[in-house]
Design goal:
The chain starts with a strand and ends in a 36-residue tail after the last helix. 36% of the residues are buried. By secondary structure, it is of the alpha+beta class.
Length: 329
């Protein structure tokens, strides 16, 4: 049933499918197709809301901090990218009653799976890597960490010219570089988590200054592997004792990606991207320049970890794949 929220015509029912801590629906305004998200928390205390005055004060403080954070994200990006670009930014953020809402462009996706992307012609595959890296570079130049890079947040769209590009979405988990949220508030897929962020979310004492935009680069490297090899890019992990890439580098081992199947033009770059030390990973801009040159250079590693890829027979079990992040302060 159609209804209006803050001037937006909501054209479908709200659903939580794939929404995490949010509900979402399709909407439109002035015939422009939109996507509207309703946050399930925090809930703004209005007249008649339950709770003591002290409880309502705490809720109000949390709501103000939540709103300030989202508006600061919008402010950091508003002069760096336009609505309708490959980085899908908020058109609007507002409160209606007890709930907060965010409105973005609706993306008509091509529904390509990682296996479909891996089977694309090389130049089309390269364009997808370029567009997602360019979107990430915009975030990073604003000192914003996406924090939840994964295939579900990198939509593939087919343009009117028949080419495929990416749309980077879901900036709700973003934080400013070196200023992460409390560990229990980090929303990210552990499969793509960087080693420094994995230690932080596990409760290990990690200097927040280590939680920079370089955390995204580790995730992007894994995404590159997924897009160039397909859905089985991480299939060897369990035979080595764990299912997460960050566990390998924390324990001093190389990430057992299928290097023989990753295109040679990308392999050196991806190796650097999934380095243990954030300082060894290239920046998003350096990655983009390498992709544009289509000759990703392999820079000598300066890592103190020289672990060779172990064979499944001698691989450490999951309980042994734990370590201290090199360079943590």
């Amino acid at each position: 049933m159609r209804h209006v929220i803050n001037g937006y015509q909501v054209t479908t029912d709200f659903t939580t499918v794939g929404g995490g801590q949010c509900q979402w629906a399709l909407a439109e305004r002035d015939t422009v197709p939109l996507f509207i998200k309703r946050f399930l928390a925090p809930r703004y205390p209005v007249e008649g809301s339950p709770g003591s005055p002290a409880t309502k004060t705490l809720k109000l403080e949390r709501c103000r901090a939540f709103e300030l954070h989202h508006r600061s994200l919008i402010g950091a990006l508003q002069h760096r990218c336009a609505v309708g670009g490959n980085l899908v930014v908020a058109r609007d953020f507002f409160r209606d009653g007890t709930s907060f809402y965010k409105v973005t462009d609706r993306v008509d996706i091509a529904r390509l799976t990682p296996d479909h992307i891996a089977a694309l012609p090389p130049e089309q595959q390269l364009l997808l890597l370029k567009t997602v890296t360019h979107s990430l570079s915009i975030l990073h130049e604003a000192r914003l960490v996406h924090c939840d890079l994964r295939p579900d947040n990198v939509l593939v769209k087919r343009t009117a010219a028949g080419i495929y590009i990416t749309k980077l979405i879901d900036l709700d988990s973003c934080y400013f570089s070196e200023a992460p949220p409390p560990a229990d508030q980090v929303a990210a897929d552990p499969i793509y988590l960087s080693p420094e962020m994995s230690r932080y979310t596990a409760g290990t004492a990690v200097d927040p200054r280590l939680l920079t935009v370089k955390a995204d680069i580790f995730s992007l490297g894994l995404l590159f592997a997924m897009f160039t090899v397909g859905s089985n890019a991480f299939s060897a992990f369990p035979s080595y004792g764990t299912q997460y890439a960050h566990e390998f580098v924390l324990a001093g081992y190389s990430v057992p990606l299928p290097w023989d199947r990753i295109p040679r033009r990308f392999a050196p770059l991806i190796r650097r991207m999934v380095s243990l030390s954030p300082e060894e990973r290239p920046t998003a801009r350096e990655i983009l320049n390498a992709l544009k040159a289509d000759a990703p250079p392999e820079r000598p590693s300066v890592s103190r970890l020289r672990g060779a890829l172990v064979s499944p027979a001698s691989a450490p079990v999951a309980t042994r794949l734990r370590g201290t992040l090199i360079g943590s302060r």
